[in-house]
Structure formats: C-alpha cells, structure tokens
C-alpha cells in the first residue's frame, strides 16, 4: 500500500521507482527549472522526469546538485529526442543527456516517441536499432531501467520482435478523459509499468464540475482526485507545477481512495478523449 511520495512501484527488473514523479515539460531551462527541482525535492518528490525535447536538462541537473539530497536517493528519467533514433545516434544522444544533466548514470531512459516524422516510414527497423543501443547502455550499467513512451500496441509488438531486454516502462497520455484502458491492460499483461503524462489533463481537469464534486466529497482538490485516480489504477502519475504549494498539494493524496460511484462519475469525461497527438500522425 502506497503511503508517501517516496514509496515505490517495482519494475520488471526489480528496480524500485517512486510512485509519483515530478514533471518538467515546458519548464524553462535556467533558474526556473533549477528552483522547481529544488522545491520539488523539498516537497518530498524523489523522482524527476525530463527529456532532451524539453531543453532543460542542464537546469534539472543543477537542481539535482543543489537540492541537498544524495543522487542515489533520487530517480532521474530522461528521453531520447525524435532526431536521435538509430544505434549510433541513440548512443550519442544518451551521452549528451548525461553530460547536460551532469550525471554519470540515469535511472530510466525512454524512447520519447515511437514513429517520429524523420523515420516514420521505417520506424520498426529504427526502433529495433535504437533498442539495441538502449540494451547495451543498460547492460553497461549506465542506466538502471529502459523503456518506451507513447508506444501503442503495434509499436510495442514490433519492438518485442527483436528486443532481448523487455521494456520496463511505457509513459503514456493517461488521465480521466483518456484512460486508454486496453493499452493499460496490455502493458500490465507484459509487466510493463505505465506512467501517466498529463495526469491533470494539462490543466483542463480544473474546468470539470464532476471532478469538483468528487473532490468536495472527499475534502480534497481536483488535482488530488486526478492523481489518486491514476494511483488507484497502479499507474505512476507525473504531475507538473512550478508552485511549491501546488507541488505539496499534488503529493497529499495518500489519505483517501475513490469509490465505485466516484469512478463512474469520473468516467463521464471519457467522451472528450485524448488531448495529445497520436504517435503515427503527430506532426513531429
Ligand atoms: P499536467 O497534467 O501535469 O498539468 C500541468 C498543468 O496543471 C500546469 O499548467 C500546472 O500549472 C497545472 N497544475 C498543476 N498542479 C496544479 C494544482 N494543484 N492546482 C492547479 N493547477 C495545477 O501536464 P504536463 O506537464 O503536460 O504532464 C506532466 C508531465 O508529464 C510533464 O511535465 C512531463 O514531464 C511529462 N510529459 C510527457 C510527455 C510524453 O510525450 N512522454 C508529454 C507531456 C508531458
């Protein structure tokens, strides 16, 4: 039973991953992200999510060095950029991410998107090559776990045809508007831990009266209901806020659970569907 932010899920290779991560998408590099990371750690977060694409790895690294908590107590994720698929490019991109972060290992490295425009025509071959690089980095101990992001079933199946190491994580758009239950079930069957990006529907959650109603019933906030909703599905949410009091609020989710009536009400939001791009048609 998860009771606090630093409590962990266990990945299929035995590595422990703190059950809520701190998101840094759109947080500008420099003092904003440095202070956000320091504050997140102060609020109790031990898991930080960044990516090459967020262009803030240097600041995330500076925040890690200044936060006052030992590196080994933190769980740091980064992701391969869309222009770096393929064996050699992935190896170089990993080294660049490490250098920018100022770290000598990562806890988790993900392929950010399965079929970027630059290799949409031959994405299966490219992902197979990329995964070979990921496996080598994993076996060399440079990364403690490797995984996927935005991989739907066909992308996962194609990768598994040649993979020697099974992915440990798939980071997906998952929230009350888009539970993506069939994909979640499939990942669970494969023992791949699902993380939720956009757990607060990228801020849209706050416009829904139904979420306010459920929040009021439990004496909690809309953000807390969304984060609890993810945890109740054994999904690992990555909420993002640059405000300290909201970071604390988003972590205060261990004293309630949602009941069947709440879940039914929340499911009425599914009509609105996903907010992000589909991996096979995204314009990047
Ligand atoms: P989110 O669902 O976490 O929502 C963030 C928005 O909610 C921000 O505008 C923030 O100000 C607001 N917010 C946060 N807490 C609040 C609170 N308590 N009260 C009121 N408003 C609050 O959206 P996100 O940042 O897109 O997703 C979370 C993380 O997931 C990202 O930061 C990133 O690390 C990751 N991500 C990954 C992908 C991917 O393709 N793998 C895509 C998007 C995001």
Explain how this protein is built.
- The chain has 284 residues and is an alpha/beta fold.
- It has one domain: Alpha-Beta Barrel (TIM Barrel), CATH 3.20.20.
- 38% of the residues lie in helices and 15% in strands.
- The strands form two sheets. The protein has an eight-stranded parallel beta sheet with strand order 3-4-5-6-7-8-9-10.
- Helix 1 packs across helix 2, helix 2 packs across helix 3 and helix 7 crosses helix 8.
- The radius of gyration is 18 Å and the shape is globular.
- The model has no long low-confidence stretch (mean pLDDT 98).
- The structure holds nicotinamide-adenine-dinucleotide (NAD).
- Nicotinamide-adenine-dinucleotide (NAD) binds next to helix 9.
Short description:
The protein is of the alpha/beta class.
Question: How is the largest sheet built, in terms of strand order?
Answer: 3-4-5-6-7-8-9-10
Intertermini distance: 39 Å
Number of domains: 1
What is the CATH H-level superfamily?
NADP-dependent oxidoreductase domain
Structural class: alpha/beta
Please give the number of β-strands.
10
Quaternary structure classification: single chain
Order of helices and strands: EEEHEHEHEHEHEHEHHEHH
Main sheet summary: 8 strands, parallel
Fraction of residues in helices? 25-40%
- Estimate the mean pLDDT confidence: 98
Residue runs with pLDDT of under 50 for 5 or more positions: none
CATH fold group:
TIM Barrel
In percent terms, what proportion of residues is strand?
Answer: 5-15%
């Amino acid at each position: 039973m998860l009771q606090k932010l630093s409590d962990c899920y266990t990945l299929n290779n035995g590595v422990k991953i703190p059950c809520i991560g701190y998101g840094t998408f759109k947080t500008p590099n420099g003092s904003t992200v440095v202070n956000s990371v320091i504050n997140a750690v102060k609020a109790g977060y031990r898991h930080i999510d960044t990516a090459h694409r967020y262009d803030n790895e240097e600041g995330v690294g500076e925040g890690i060095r200044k936060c006052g908590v030992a590196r080994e107590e933190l769980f740091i994720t980064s992701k391969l950029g869309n222009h770096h698929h393929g064996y050699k490019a992935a190896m170089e991109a990993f080294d660049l991410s490490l250098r920018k972060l100022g770290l000598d290992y990562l806890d988790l490295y993900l392929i950010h998107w399965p079929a970027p425009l630059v290799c949409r025509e031959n994405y299966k071959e490219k992902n197979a090559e990329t995964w070979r690089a990921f496996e080598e980095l994993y076996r060399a101990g440079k990364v403690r776990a490797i995984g996927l992001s935005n991989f739907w079933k066909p992308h996962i199946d194609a990768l598994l045809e040649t993979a020697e190491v099974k992915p440990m994580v798939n980071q997906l758009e998952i929230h009350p508007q888009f539970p993506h239950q069939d994909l979640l079930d499939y990942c669970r069957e494969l023992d791949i831990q699902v993380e939720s990006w956009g757990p607060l529907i990228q801020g849209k959650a706050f416009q829904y009266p139904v979420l306010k109603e459920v929040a009021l019933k439990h004496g909690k906030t809309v953000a807390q209901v969304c984060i609890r909703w993810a945890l109740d599905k054994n999904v690992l949410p990555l909420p993002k806020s640059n405000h300290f009091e909201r970071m604390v609020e988003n972590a205060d989710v261990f004293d309630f659970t949602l009941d069947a009536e709440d879940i039914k009400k929340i499911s009425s939001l599914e009509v609105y569907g996903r907010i992000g791009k589909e991996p096979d048609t995204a314009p990047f």
